[in-house]
């Protein structure tokens, strides 16, 4: 009892923190709400960190909740990634929060509620609880996207996301009803038992239901043909919210996708493989076109996030073909994408806070001369996102493509590599814009504060992930991350 | 004629189709929210029918969860709709064209 309370303590802390921030939201006291929410997240992070590495798998309060919530090594690792991600997102936007007047207490309460939903998503061992957690996270994010209601773009993004998101939610419920009808249960273990007990061709209804559930999850990660909202919503949302959606929310979604796949649907691999391959091809190519045609950096990063989702779908497809090692490469890729994208968005947020610009490619002309250090770091992030060797992004892509080749998906791996070459075009366009134009602007002083130090940290992490292994023999290496992910995955079965 | 599970599922599918057409064709945001309500309630009928078929109460419990979620979705959605209406004076989807590409 006490032990189980201890296990869910991080989640309780987040909810209580969110409620507290909500109560404090209209107090006039000089209160740094950003730091307060970071403190709450850090406490939960520390508590979760103490469990890292010990193998455990407990259904929390099984007498009350049934088998709907599980705490295992897998969820612990994802909790750490989600909490760390939210913490870094809030910290790196420190300057941005100060420069805009509309970030009051409610904003941080909503962020914490969203984080709670994401954590619950990684703990869900039952489709109804997965849906409820997904809705908790989504509803908070709907409100966050439209938070700057003075900006028509923000309002429009919010409305588009709400309308399409609630349609996607209804599809999830339809799929759930079909799965319930086919198996008589929505608990992942019971569904797996049902799949094992019946012949492969008796699963039509289950497969159709699973298809609808997956459509919703693919909608949320922005896979093409369900991507219509991605660029507009990412563009319209305030920068911190864009960061939260692009990195942290995606991590949580892959937590639930991996759990459902490795637990249940991988057993139906014969059926899943073909739709997933089509989805991969569409997402990789469609995302590239989306990213190529943008002139605003935020929109370009949004388009390229679709491509990155496509890479992870390649690994998901390798899982359905029986190469379970590919799930580690998804985890590693999530981390590497997180580091590089938070860094890149962090620089955008730093510039938006200090110079109030639209942040198009035009604005970055001569950036290499006016902000030499930030430009160098931006180049590192772009190289890492493009998957250039000696950055963490390269290793992430390397693991994904090896996993795909091991599963016999040579053509998909080749397409992925081709798309990575295409992505060099739009990422290097930014680097070229920064360095190849003269500027009348003089060099700006590089000051150390929370935002810039964290951007620097992200840049160092990107490089460490790529070459740290050779240079610093006594520090933990990317292999440690892979080891950690492998350990987490084994707790699933 | 006896009413079986199939009839309920057909009803549920029909309602779902109506809701889906509503989401696709309507441009009035309020009507869009109605349509998503129809979608969720169609699923509820399915849940209740299947739960009766199996003699298993969990399905009806799920229906209650869905009602709660639908309510909170509408609460958030209507709140956002009011913000939208205050600032732009209309609730038509076709006016949302400030971002392209």
Give me some keywords for this one.
heterodimer, A: 493 residues, mainly alpha, two-stranded antiparallel ribbon, 21 helices, globular, B: 101 residues, Helix Hairpins, 3 helices
Overall mean confidence score, pLDDT of chain A = 86
Structural class, judged by helices and strands of chain B?
A: mainly alpha
Q: Which CATH first-tier class of chain B would you pick?
A: Mainly Alpha
Got a strand count of chain A?
2
Number of domains of chain B: 1
Q: What percent of residues of chain A adopt helix (DSSP H or I)?
A: over 70%
Describe the structure.
- The complex is a heterodimer of chains A (493) and B (101).
- In chain A, helix 7 runs antiparallel to helix 8 and helix 15 packs across helix 21.
- Chain A has a domain of 216 residues.
- Helices cover 76% and strands 1% of the residues of chain A.
- The longest helix of chain A is centred in the middle third of the chain and has 32 residues.
- Chain A has 493 residues and is mostly helical.
- Chain A has a two-stranded antiparallel sheet.
- Chain B is mostly helical and 101 residues long.
- Chain B is elongated and about 50 Å long.
- The N and C termini of chain B lie far apart (55 Å).
- The mean pLDDT of chain B is 87.
- Classes of the chains: A mainly alpha (493), B mainly alpha (101).
Quick rundown:
Chain A is mainly alpha-helical and 493 residues long. Chain A is built from 21 helices and two strands. Helix content of chain A is 76%, strand content 1%.
């Amino acid at each position: 009892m006490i032990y189980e309370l201890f296990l869910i303590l991080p989640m309780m802390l987040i909810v209580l923190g969110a409620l507290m921030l909500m109560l404090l939201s209209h107090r006039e006291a000089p209160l740094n709400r950003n730091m307060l929410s970071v403190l709450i997240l850090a406490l939960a992070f520390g508590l979760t960190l103490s469990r890292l590495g010990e193998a455990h798998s407990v259904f929390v309060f099984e007498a009350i909740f049934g088998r709907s919530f599980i705490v295992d090594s897998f969820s612990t690792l994802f909790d750490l990634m989600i909490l760390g991600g939210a913490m870094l997102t809030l910290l790196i936007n420190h300057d941005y929060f100060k420069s805009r007047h509309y970030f009051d207490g409610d904003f941080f309460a909503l962020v914490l509620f969203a984080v709670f939903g994401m954590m619950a998503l990684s703990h869900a061992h039952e489709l109804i609880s997965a849906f409820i957690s997904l809705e908790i996270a989504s509803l908070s994010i709907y409100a966050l996207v439209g938070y700057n209601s003075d900006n028509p773009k923000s309002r429009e993004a919010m409305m588009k996301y709400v309308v399409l998101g609630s349609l996607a939610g209804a599809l999830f419920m339809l799929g759930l009803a079909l799965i319930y009808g086919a198996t008589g249960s929505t608990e992942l273990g019971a569904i797996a038992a049902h799949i094992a007990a019946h012949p492969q061709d008796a699963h039509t209804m289950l497969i159709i239901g699973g298809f609808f559930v997956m459509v919703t999850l693919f909608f949320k990660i922005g896979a093409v043909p369900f991507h219509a909202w991605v660029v507009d919503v990412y563009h319209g949302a305030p920068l911190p919210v864009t960061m939260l959606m692009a990195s942290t929310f995606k991590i949580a979604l892959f937590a639930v996708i991996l759990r459902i796949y490795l637990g249940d649907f991988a057993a139906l691999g014969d059926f899943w493989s073909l739709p997933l391959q089509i989805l991969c091809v569409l997402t990789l190519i469609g995302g590239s076109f989306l990213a190529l045609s943008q002139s605003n950096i935020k929109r370009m990063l949004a388009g390229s996030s679709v491509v990155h989702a496509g890479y992870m779908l390649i690994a998901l497809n390798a899982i359905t073909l029986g190469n379970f090692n590919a799930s580690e490469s998804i985890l590693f890729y999530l981390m590497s994408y997180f580091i590089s994208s938070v860094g890149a968005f962090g620089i955008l947020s730093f510039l938006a806070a200090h110079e109030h610009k639209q942040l198009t490619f035009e604005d970055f002309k001569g950036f290499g001369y006016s902000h030499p250090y930030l430009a160098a770091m931006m180049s590192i992030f772009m190289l890492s996102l493009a998957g250039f060797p000696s950055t963490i992004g390269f290793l992430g892509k390397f693991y994904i493509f090896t996993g795909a080749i091991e599963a016999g998906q040579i053509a998909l791996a080749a397409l992925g590599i081709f798309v990575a070459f295409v992505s060099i075009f739009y990422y290097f366009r930014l680097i070229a814009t920064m360095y190849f134009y003269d500027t009348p602007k003089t060099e700006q002083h590089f000051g150390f504060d929370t935002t810039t130090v964290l951007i620097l940290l992200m840049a160092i992490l990107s490089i460490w992930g790529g070459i740290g292994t050779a240079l610093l023999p006594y520090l933990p290496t990317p292999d440690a991350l892979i080891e950690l992910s492998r350990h987490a995955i084994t707790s699933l079965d | 004629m006896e009413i079986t599970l199939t009839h309920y599922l057909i009803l549920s599918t029909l309602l779902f189709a109506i809701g889906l057409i509503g989401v696709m064709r309507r441009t009035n945001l309020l009507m869009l929210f109605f349509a998503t309500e129809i979608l969720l309630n169609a699923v509820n009928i399915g849940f209740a029918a299947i739960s009766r078929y199996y003699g298993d109460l969990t399905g009806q419990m799920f229906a209650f969860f869905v009602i709660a979620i639908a309510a909170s979705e509408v609460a958030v959605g209507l709140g956002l709709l009011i913000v939208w209406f205050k600032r732009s004076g209309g609730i038509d989807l076709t006016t949302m064209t400030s971002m392209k590409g």
